[in-house]
Amino acid sequence: MKLNKQIILALIIMVATSALYRVLPGRPYGFAPQIAIALFGGSLFATKKQYAFLLPIISMFISDLIYQVLFNYHLSPIQGFYSGQLLNYVLIAGTAVFGFGLQSNKLSKYILGFLSAPTAYFLLSNFLVWAQGGGYHHAINMTGLVQTMVDGLPFYPYSVAGTLVFGGVLFGGFRFMVPQFKSL
Questions:
Q1: Taking the model in full, what pTM does it have?
Q2: Does 100 reside within a domain?
Q3: What letters, b where the CB count within 10 A reaches 16 and e where it falls short, cover 7-19?
Q4: Which domain, by its residues, includes 30?
Protein backbone atom coordinates (compact mmCIF):
# COMPACT_ATOMS: atom_id res chain seq x y z
CA MET A 1 0.00 0.00 0.00
CA LYS A 2 1.37 3.39 -0.98
CA LEU A 3 1.36 6.32 1.40
CA ASN A 4 -1.02 8.55 -0.57
CA LYS A 5 -2.76 11.85 0.22
CA GLN A 6 -5.89 10.17 1.59
CA ILE A 7 -3.91 8.07 4.05
CA ILE A 8 -1.84 11.07 5.13
CA LEU A 9 -5.02 13.13 5.61
CA ALA A 10 -6.61 10.31 7.61
CA LEU A 11 -3.53 10.10 9.84
CA ILE A 12 -3.47 13.86 10.38
CA ILE A 13 -7.17 13.91 11.28
CA MET A 14 -6.76 10.97 13.68
CA VAL A 15 -3.72 12.43 15.42
CA ALA A 16 -5.24 15.92 15.68
CA THR A 17 -8.58 14.61 16.94
CA SER A 18 -6.87 12.42 19.49
CA ALA A 19 -4.65 15.27 20.67
CA LEU A 20 -7.68 17.53 21.07
CA TYR A 21 -9.56 14.83 22.98
CA ARG A 22 -6.69 14.57 25.43
CA VAL A 23 -7.18 18.19 26.52
CA LEU A 24 -10.95 17.99 27.05
CA PRO A 25 -11.89 18.91 30.62
CA GLY A 26 -13.54 16.31 32.82
CA ARG A 27 -12.18 13.18 31.17
CA PRO A 28 -10.64 10.64 33.54
CA TYR A 29 -6.86 10.95 33.84
CA GLY A 30 -5.23 8.09 32.02
CA PHE A 31 -8.10 7.75 29.51
CA ALA A 32 -6.11 9.01 26.54
CA PRO A 33 -5.49 7.87 22.98
CA GLN A 34 -1.70 8.02 22.81
CA ILE A 35 -1.00 4.32 23.47
CA ALA A 36 -3.63 3.38 20.88
CA ILE A 37 -1.97 5.80 18.44
CA ALA A 38 1.38 4.13 19.14
CA LEU A 39 -0.14 0.69 18.50
CA PHE A 40 -1.78 1.97 15.34
CA GLY A 41 1.48 3.52 14.17
CA GLY A 42 3.34 0.30 14.91
CA SER A 43 0.82 -1.67 12.89
CA LEU A 44 0.63 0.76 9.99
CA PHE A 45 4.36 1.44 9.76
CA ALA A 46 5.81 -1.95 10.76
CA THR A 47 8.44 -1.71 8.01
CA LYS A 48 9.09 2.05 8.44
CA LYS A 49 9.47 2.02 12.19
CA GLN A 50 10.60 5.63 12.56
CA TYR A 51 7.08 6.74 11.57
CA ALA A 52 5.54 4.34 14.06
CA PHE A 53 7.41 6.04 16.88
CA LEU A 54 6.70 9.51 15.50
CA LEU A 55 2.87 9.28 15.48
CA PRO A 56 2.31 9.22 19.26
CA ILE A 57 5.03 11.83 19.82
CA ILE A 58 3.37 14.24 17.40
CA SER A 59 -0.02 13.63 19.01
CA MET A 60 1.36 14.19 22.51
CA PHE A 61 3.30 17.29 21.47
CA ILE A 62 0.19 18.86 19.90
CA SER A 63 -1.90 18.19 23.00
CA ASP A 64 0.89 19.34 25.34
CA LEU A 65 1.20 22.54 23.32
CA ILE A 66 -2.55 23.09 23.66
CA TYR A 67 -2.33 22.40 27.41
CA GLN A 68 0.50 24.93 27.73
CA VAL A 69 -1.40 27.65 25.87
CA LEU A 70 -4.49 27.04 28.02
CA PHE A 71 -2.32 27.08 31.15
CA ASN A 72 -0.61 30.33 30.11
CA TYR A 73 -4.02 31.98 29.68
CA HIS A 74 -5.24 30.57 33.03
CA LEU A 75 -7.84 28.39 31.30
CA SER A 76 -6.39 25.11 32.60
CA PRO A 77 -4.58 24.13 35.78
CA ILE A 78 -2.51 21.59 33.80
CA GLN A 79 0.84 22.64 32.36
CA GLY A 80 1.66 21.29 28.92
CA PHE A 81 5.41 21.18 29.38
CA TYR A 82 6.93 19.69 32.51
CA SER A 83 10.05 18.00 33.82
CA GLY A 84 10.23 14.35 32.92
CA GLN A 85 8.23 14.94 29.74
CA LEU A 86 10.88 13.56 27.43
CA LEU A 87 10.91 10.25 29.28
CA ASN A 88 7.11 10.05 29.02
CA TYR A 89 7.35 10.65 25.26
CA VAL A 90 9.92 7.87 24.92
CA LEU A 91 7.78 5.44 26.93
CA ILE A 92 4.61 6.18 24.92
CA ALA A 93 6.49 5.97 21.61
CA GLY A 94 8.03 2.69 22.79
CA THR A 95 4.59 1.11 23.03
CA ALA A 96 4.56 1.18 19.21
CA VAL A 97 6.64 -1.99 19.41
CA PHE A 98 3.49 -3.81 20.52
CA GLY A 99 1.79 -2.70 17.29
CA PHE A 100 4.39 -4.24 14.97
CA GLY A 101 2.60 -7.60 15.11
CA LEU A 102 -0.92 -6.23 14.54
CA GLN A 103 -1.33 -6.66 10.80
CA SER A 104 -3.43 -9.81 10.91
CA ASN A 105 -7.17 -10.07 11.38
CA LYS A 106 -6.82 -12.11 14.57
CA LEU A 107 -8.84 -10.53 17.36
CA SER A 108 -6.71 -12.31 19.96
CA LYS A 109 -3.59 -10.44 18.77
CA TYR A 110 -5.39 -7.11 19.07
CA ILE A 111 -6.67 -7.87 22.55
CA LEU A 112 -3.21 -8.99 23.64
CA GLY A 113 -1.60 -5.85 22.18
CA PHE A 114 -4.29 -3.55 23.60
CA LEU A 115 -3.75 -5.03 27.07
CA SER A 116 0.04 -5.49 26.95
CA ALA A 117 0.99 -1.98 25.80
CA PRO A 118 -0.74 -0.02 28.61
CA THR A 119 0.43 -2.61 31.14
CA ALA A 120 4.05 -2.23 30.02
CA TYR A 121 3.68 1.56 30.07
CA PHE A 122 2.18 1.45 33.59
CA LEU A 123 4.93 -0.80 34.97
CA LEU A 124 7.82 1.05 33.31
CA SER A 125 6.59 4.57 34.01
CA ASN A 126 5.90 3.89 37.66
CA PHE A 127 9.18 2.03 38.07
CA LEU A 128 11.06 4.99 36.57
CA VAL A 129 9.22 7.47 38.81
CA TRP A 130 10.29 5.38 41.79
CA ALA A 131 13.87 4.88 40.53
CA GLN A 132 14.35 8.59 39.93
CA GLY A 133 13.65 9.57 43.48
CA GLY A 134 11.20 7.36 45.18
CA GLY A 135 8.01 8.57 43.55
CA TYR A 136 6.18 11.04 45.76
CA HIS A 137 8.83 10.67 48.44
CA HIS A 138 8.64 6.90 48.74
CA ALA A 139 11.80 5.17 49.86
CA ILE A 140 14.11 3.55 47.32
CA ASN A 141 13.39 0.03 48.53
CA MET A 142 10.87 -2.69 47.73
CA THR A 143 8.20 -1.11 49.95
CA GLY A 144 8.65 2.23 48.18
CA LEU A 145 8.42 0.57 44.78
CA VAL A 146 5.21 -1.25 45.74
CA GLN A 147 3.73 1.97 47.12
CA THR A 148 4.63 3.86 43.92
CA MET A 149 2.89 1.14 41.88
CA VAL A 150 -0.16 1.31 44.17
CA ASP A 151 -0.25 5.11 43.77
CA GLY A 152 -0.46 4.65 40.00
CA LEU A 153 -3.23 2.03 40.09
CA PRO A 154 -6.16 4.49 39.79
CA PHE A 155 -4.87 5.53 36.34
CA TYR A 156 -4.25 2.02 35.00
CA PRO A 157 -7.84 0.90 34.24
CA TYR A 158 -8.49 4.17 32.40
CA SER A 159 -5.32 3.66 30.38
CA VAL A 160 -6.46 0.18 29.37
CA ALA A 161 -9.99 1.42 28.61
CA GLY A 162 -8.65 4.35 26.58
CA THR A 163 -6.40 2.02 24.61
CA LEU A 164 -9.30 -0.35 23.91
CA VAL A 165 -11.71 2.42 22.88
CA PHE A 166 -9.30 4.48 20.80
CA GLY A 167 -7.61 1.37 19.40
CA GLY A 168 -11.00 0.13 18.21
CA VAL A 169 -11.77 3.50 16.64
CA LEU A 170 -8.36 3.90 14.98
CA PHE A 171 -7.97 0.34 13.73
CA GLY A 172 -11.63 -0.12 12.87
CA GLY A 173 -11.96 3.23 11.15
CA PHE A 174 -8.79 2.80 9.15
CA ARG A 175 -9.63 -0.74 8.07
CA PHE A 176 -13.06 0.53 7.02
CA MET A 177 -11.44 3.31 4.98
CA VAL A 178 -8.62 1.12 3.60
CA PRO A 179 -9.93 -2.49 3.50
CA GLN A 180 -6.85 -3.82 1.67
CA PHE A 181 -4.64 -2.75 4.62
CA LYS A 182 -1.04 -3.88 4.54
CA SER A 183 1.79 -2.58 6.64
CA LEU A 184 3.89 0.22 5.09
A1: 0.86
A2: yes
A3: beebbeebbeebb
A4: 5-177
